[in-house]
């Protein structure tokens, strides 16, 4: 029995020595030290031994078991270390490799124009007001001196949601909402940027959804000359100091008198070309002095307060500023178009 145990120990140690992997090592552990292994077997046969031999063999068997266990642990540690080193070697990162460029997005050209216009007016003391895109017939039309059945409603084909609600056709309802909040106490000095909707067929100059920026100033002694001066500053800052403006009489139900503003054509410098249709002027926006009815409807005393308002289309302004020939470019998300406006921000 003694020889048998020694032989088992030698065999086991040899196999442990030769083992190349952790799985193999575990198999050896099970084979020698497991419940069905040869050492357990030998120990089971101890009953047949004499009383003096029994403790001797017992101690020997324990020594053999301990020797094998110790060697198994050493080898296990060694193999685990090797496995980690191998993994580290195979997963080494070459930090000298050039990185993959990260493609950065940028602000949409329309967002940029709107922000530029906002900044310009904020610089003149305006604050920004907003209103809902789903608007009531009252704010979109009635409060702006456009009662039901008024022929000027036809100027703005509308998306109605119910009899009394619609997608706002312009940002002018924000005028009425702002005045109402002021409860008849001036002054008011706001611009209102936002999306508007009209039942138009989309083409190079029309889009069923577009943007507007509304301006509204109310106070005592606000005059037409204030409107003209403000628009002049805006036009020169936006398009260049060399540009001139002119105001032409026009009609809007919410202003009296009403004007349209033209700016000298950038292409021909005012001489006349195909872009300005030979006139030397390009139309930019509409505006005028706030109609007394509009002031009164929103709670302002029209004998005490006067005001001016204007509305412009940032798409049109961006098209003129950057020479863009189709409004649909703003809404079709073609990266070839958008990329041209990419700047470091
Ligand atoms: N709301 C007008 C439109 O959509 C634009 C406009 C004209 C706004 C004159 C104004 C204004 O505030 O005074 O056609």
TrEMBL record:
Main location: cytoplasm
UniProt keyword list: Aminoacyl-tRNA synthetase, ATP-binding, Coiled coil, Cytoplasm, Ligase, Magnesium, Metal-binding, Nucleotide-binding, Protein biosynthesis
EC id: 6.1.1.20
A Pfam family reported for this protein in Swiss-Prot or TrEMBL: Phe_tRNA-synt_N
Encoding gene (name): pheS
Catalysed reactions, semicolon-separated: tRNA(Phe) + L-phenylalanine + ATP = L-phenylalanyl-tRNA(Phe) + AMP + diphosphate + H(+)
Name of this protein: Phenylalanine--tRNA ligase alpha subunit
Residue ranges of domain Aminoacyl-transfer RNA synthetases class-II family profile in the record: 111-340
């Amino acid at each position: 029995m003694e020889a048998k145990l020694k032989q088992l120990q030698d065999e086991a140690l040899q196999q442990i020595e030769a083992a190349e992997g952790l799985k193999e090592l575990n198999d050896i552990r099970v084979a020698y030290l497991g419940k069905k292994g040869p050492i357990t077997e030998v120990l089971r046969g101890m009953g047949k031994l004499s009383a003096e031999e029994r403790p001797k063999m017992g101690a020997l068997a324990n020594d053999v078991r301990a020797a094998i266990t110790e060697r198994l642990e050493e080898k296990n540690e060694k193999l685990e270390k090797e496995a980690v080193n191998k993994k580290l070697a195979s997963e080494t990162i070459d930090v000298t490799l050039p990185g993959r460029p990260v493609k950065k997005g940028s602000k949409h050209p329309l967002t940029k124009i709107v922000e530029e216009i906002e900044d310009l007016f904020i610089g003149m003391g305006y604050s920004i007001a907003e209103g809902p895109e789903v608007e009531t017939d009252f704010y979109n039309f009635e409060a702006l001196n456009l009662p039901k059945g008024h022929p000027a409603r036809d100027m703005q084909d509308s998306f109605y949601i119910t009899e009394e609600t619609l997608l706002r056709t312009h940002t002018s309802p924000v005028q009425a909402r702002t005045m109402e909040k002021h409860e008849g106490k001036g002054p008011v000095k706001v611009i209102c940027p936002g999306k508007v909707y009209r039942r138009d067929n989309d083409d190079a100059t029309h889009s069923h959804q577009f943007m507007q920026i509304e301006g509204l100033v109310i106070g005592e002694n606000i005059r037409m000359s204030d409107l003209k001066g403000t628009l002049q500053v805006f036009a020169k800052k936006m398009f260049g100091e060399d540009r001139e403006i002119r105001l032409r009489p026009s009609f809007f139900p919410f202003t009296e008198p009403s004007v349209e503003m033209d700016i000298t054509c950038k292409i021909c410098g005012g001489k006349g070309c195909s872009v300005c249709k030979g006139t030397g002027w390009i139309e930019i926006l509409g505006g005028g002095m706030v109609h007394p009815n509009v002031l009164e409807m929103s709670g302002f005393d029209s004998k005490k307060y006067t005001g001016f308002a204007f509305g412009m289309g940032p798409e049109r302004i961006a098209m003129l500023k950057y020479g863009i020939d189709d409004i649909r470019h703003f809404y079709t998300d073609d990266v070839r178009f958008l990329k041209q406006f990419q700047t470091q921000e």
